[in-house]
Amino acid sequence: MAERMDVAIIGSGPAGISAAITATARGLSLKLYGNMAVSEKLSKAHQINNYPGFYGKSGAEIADAFSDHLNAMGIARDEAKIGGIYSMGDYFSIAVGSDVAEATAVILATGVNFGRPIPGENDLLGRGVSYCATCDGMLYRGKKAAVLAYDQGEEKEADFLASIGVEVDYIPMYKGTPDLANGDAMNVIEGAAPKSIEGDGKVEKLILGGANGEAERELSEDAVFILRSSIAPDKIIDGLELDGNHVKVDRKMATNIPGFFAAGDITGTPYQYVKAAGEGNVAAISAASYVAAIKKK
Ligand SMILES: Cc1cc2nc3c(=O)[nH]c(=O)nc-3n(C[C@H](O)[C@H](O)[C@H](O)COP(=O)(O)OP(=O)(O)OC[C@H]3O[C@@H](n4cnc5c(N)ncnc54)[C@H](O)[C@@H]3O)c2cc1C
């Protein structure tokens, strides 16, 4: 049985990092899921002049300072993309790749994703459409799958699929040349964009349009892995109340699900580092109270 941590923090941007710092200071056991580069939205910012103490610094410099802070406090990052969270009453079960972790409370700090769903994506989710290659890849061993990668960091997910014997059509949706370890074993299709995912009850094909107006192209597929930097929050956990595209929270950053908190861009505008970090701090304090109450029971 998985050892149960006090709080799982999903997302390693300013909100998740701030939550991890406060949760650690409060003595909670935790895992911080995300990536070692902190957050693309931070590391790619040219210059940030509205975060106290960092005037004139680039996003990359601030990301390094955040990493140093985590290291100084002994807070490790678990470089895993969380594909699903299940409320089990007084704890949560969390799909970490092909493993499962347990936490009494969760703080969701996965940022916002501006992309619209691809036609067919929502209908075929769980029926061949997946957001996590390491979670669902084994189901398609010996079969054919398209990988729509919106971030270069997702290449390792495609490499994993090829390494377990999935026949991969790799479609990079980012700028830059793909640098795949198993690229020779894949069919790499550049300069294309998804138009729709189609199938009768399960994924059967992916329709591509050329980015420069070329004719449509139809690929037969058993699965389509859509790898964006962040997954829509209501796809991560069932029953989460939204306010438009954002997670609905109160002033304690509590959602409608007991023990489930949210912080940062995912809770709404303004999209700002300092707001994200502040909400991460509040969410961790609220999670600490929740965990204490559960432990008293
Ligand atoms: C180019 C650019 C410049 C900007 N400049 C400024 C500025 O000057 N000042 C300012 O205040 N704001 C600025 N912003 C806005 C700022 O980037 C955001 O408000 C801030 O990054 C939000 O922090 P966050 O922690 O909520 O989310 P993010 O920074 O988006 O971090 C989310 C993290 O969660 C991870 N994640 C997502 N899904 C999962 C999952 N399923 N499992 C595990 N991890 C996951 C992501 O990989 C990422 O690490 C800028 C944004 C951009 C794009």
Question: What topology emerges from the helices and strands here?
Answer:
Elements: E1 4-10, H1 14-25, E2 30-33, H2 40-43, H3 59-72, E3 77-78, E4 82-87, E5 92-96, E6 99-108, E7 129-130, H4 133-136, E8 144-149, H5 155-163, E9 167-172, E10 187-188, E11 192-198, E12 205-210, E13 217-220, E14 223-227, H6 233-236, E15 242-243, E16 246-247, E17 260-262, H7 273-296
Parallel strand pairs: 1-2, 1-6, 2-3, 6-17, 7-14, 8-9, 8-14, 9-10
Antiparallel strand pairs: 4-5, 5-6, 11-12, 12-13, 15-16
The structure holds flavin-adenine dinucleotide.
Flavin-adenine dinucleotide (FAD) binds at residues 10-16, 33-35, 39, 41-42, 44-45, 48, 50, 81-82, 109-111, 229-231, 264-265, 271-274, 276.
Briefly characterize the structure.
This protein has 297 residues and is of the alpha/beta class. It has helices at residues 14-25, 40-43, 59-72, 133-136, 155-163, 233-236, 273-296; strands at 4-10, 30-33, 77-78, 82-87, 92-96, 99-108, 129-130, 144-149, 167-172, 187-188, 192-198, 205-210, 217-220, 223-227, 242-243, 246-247, 260-262. The radius of gyration is 20 Å and the shape is globular.
